[in-house]
Specification:
Structural class of chain B: alpha+beta
Strand order of the largest sheet of chain B: 2-3-1-4
Distance between the termini of chain A: 30 Å
Strand content of chain B: 5-15%
Order of helices and strands of chain A: EEEHEEHEHHHEHEHEE
Strand order of the largest sheet of chain A: 6-7-8-3-9-10
Helix content of chain A: 25-40%
Number of helices of chain B: 10
Number of strands of chain A: 10
Low-confidence stretches of chain B: none
Shape of chain A: globular
Radius of gyration of chain A: 18 Å
Strand content of chain A: 15-25%
Largest sheet of chain A: 6 strands, mixed
Number of domains of chain B: 2
Oligomer: heterodimer
Order of helices and strands of chain B: HHEHEHHEHEHHHH
Number of strands of chain B: 4
Mean pLDDT of chain B: 81
Mean pLDDT of chain A: 89
Low-confidence stretches of chain A: none
Largest interface: A-B, 23 and 19 residues
């Protein structure tokens, strides 16, 4: 599903590469934790998958397609097959929960009938049914992240990316979010989660890829967060 | 459904940016009004030329004390010129009657002119109006000839003044168009910036570039359209004010042919699409620079 082949990324202003000769493969349906200290290249990795950036060298393949070679009018289609959530939730503050999720569907041209059917379903999936008319500032952090997850998942993407989704949440709420991501993974969606949260990684025992200064220093099938020495 | 979304986003955007949109509309309207006025002046000149150039004549004014033999010689010479189409003679009495008729609105003027004051003349209509020199040469040194006057030269002076007005209007219009373009560009920039949260999410979620850009383009085009329509209105008002009032003052009959409403409609056909195109183009170019896709 995801394949990196000797990928390097150097930012124009950067002194050292953000990613350096990274090669790895992630199969469909896997759940992968991407760990590493700040600046190790986790966010760059995710941005390459979304084609927010293109690799300086090497190939990035998503679902068999070379991402860097895609023509710019094909890129939106790529992004529709990838759902993404972030540490800061990125909800639209002037729209309520229903409208926030509907927005993701409207902008890709889904008809209103479909939207009104699908949005309540996905809200039930994330455990927020009944809260459709609340505004983001009326929700707790955990609830806001659930809305973001609902928005990312509503189109049933192939890949689900999470860039430190529990970064702004307390440990208890984080567990709830992880349970949700686990449920999403069990539907067959490939999940890649970049995180600092050692407790989560240790408790879930999934594949762990550790980055350090742009290189992969560890790739363990049922790993923990711990530092490789 | 998708159209509904785009329309809703456009309306939203307009509402958020009302003051700048109004500024755009006004600037576009002013520049296009001036351009339209320039076009109208051009049409007026063309109409007048078309009417008058046909009728202009070369006037051979005769001296006050001309003798009949000289008169005959001049008459024959003029008739003999191959470039001449018609010659007709206007006596002092004819001239005076024509004068009375042309200036019947000014009785004081007429009262002060005696039948003897106006000279007699031969009016020569040439097959090719540009061959004025032929007559001048033929009459050179001819006794009894006071002056040979090419009425075209007089008209040309008049037209030059009008053309000057047209050029001035078009220059100011051009400056205003540049101002309008910069203003539109800035408005789009501000709009794109203030909506970066929405457009960021649209990009993330996989909305096509067209979907993201279209509301901005429509906002720009709509402002341009309204500006163009306002300009069209002011051009029509210009015509009504200047032309129709003049006609009304002279009771509908006049020596000067004026442009009709068809000229106005033709101008509309230029002005309104120009407004839309200008705005849409500038918006598109600005978006390419400032809206990440």
């Amino acid at each position: 599903m995801i394949r990196l082949d000797a990928v390097s990324k150097v930012y124009p202003a950067g002194t050292r590469p953000a990613l350096s000769d990274v090669s790895l493969e992630i199969d469909k349906g896997e759940f992968v934790f991407l760990v590493g200290s700040s600046g190790s290249g986790k966010s760059t990795f995710l941005r390459l998958l979304l084609r927010e950036e293109t690799p300086t060298s090497g190939t990035v393949e998503v679902d068999g397609k070379d991402v860097a070679r895609l023509s710019s009018w094909k890129v939106p289609a790529l992004r529709r097959s990838i759902g993404c959530v972030f540490q800061d939730f990125r909800l639209l503050p002037s729209k309520n929960v229903h409208q926030n999720i509907a927005f993701a569907l409207e902008v890709i041209g889904k008809p209103r009938v479909t939207i009104n059917k699908v949005v309540p379903e996905v809200l039930r999936l994330v455990g927020l049914d009944g809260k459709e008319h609340r505004m983001p500032d009326e929700l707790s952090g955990g609830e806001q992240q659930r809305v973001a997850i609902a928005r990312a998942f509503v189109n049933r993407p192939l890949i689900f990316l999470a860039d430190e989704p529990t970064g702004n949440l307390d440990p208890g709420t984080s567990v709830g979010i992880m349970k949700l991501l686990d449920r999403i993974n069990r539907t067959g969606t490939t999940v890649v989660m970049a995180t600092h949260d050692s407790a989560i990684v240790d408790s879930m025992r999934r594949r762990v890829i550790e980055l350090d200064a742009g290189t992969v220093i560890r790739d363990q099938a049922r790993g923990i967060y711990g530092y490789a020495r | 459904m998708r159209a509904q979304f785009v329309v809703a986003e456009t309306a939203n955007g307009l509402r958020r940016n009302v003051t700048m949109t109004i500024a755009v509309i006004v600037t576009v309207a002013i520049s296009l009004s001036l351009a339209g006025a320039g076009l109208l002046i051009g049409r007026q000149v063309a109409t007048m030329k078309g009417y008058w150039y046909d009728k202009v004549e070369v006037s051979v004014f005769l001296t006050n004390d001309i003798a009949q033999p000289d008169r005959d010689v001049i008459n024959t010479k003029l008739h003999d010129l191959p470039q001449v189409q018609t010659v007709y003679y206007e006596s002092k009495a004819d001239a005076f009657n024509r004068f009375k008729d042309q200036f019947k609105d000014s009785p004081d003027l007429v009262r002060n002119v005696t039948p003897d004051a106006l000279p007699e003349s031969f009016r020569v209509k040439l097959k090719d109006p540009t061959k004025f020199d032929v007559v001048a040469t033929a009459m050179a040194g001819q006794p009894g000839v006071e002056e040979v006057q090419d009425q075209r030269k007089l008209l040309d002076k008049f037209f030059r003044v009008l053309n000057g007005f047209q050029t001035a209007a078009l220059i100011v219009a051009l400056v205003q168009v540049v101002a309008a373009a910069l203003l539109i560009s800035n408005t789009i920039r501000v709009a794109a910036f203030s909506r970066r949260r929405e457009t960021g999410i649209m990009r993330l979620v996989g909305a096509s570039n067209l979907y993201i850009q279209l509301p901005f383009l429509l906002e720009g085009a709509l402002a341009g359209l309204v500006g163009g329509v306002l300009a069209a209105g002011s051009v029509a008002a210009l015509k009504a004010f200047f032309v129709d009032r003049q006609l009304k003052a002279r009771g509908g009959i006049t020596a000067i042919p004026f442009i009709g409403w068809d000229a106005v409609f033709q101008t509309w056909l230029y002005v309104v699409p120009l407004g839309v195109l200008l705005s849409a183009l500038v918006s598109f170019v600005t978006l390419r620079r400032y809206l990440r896709v």
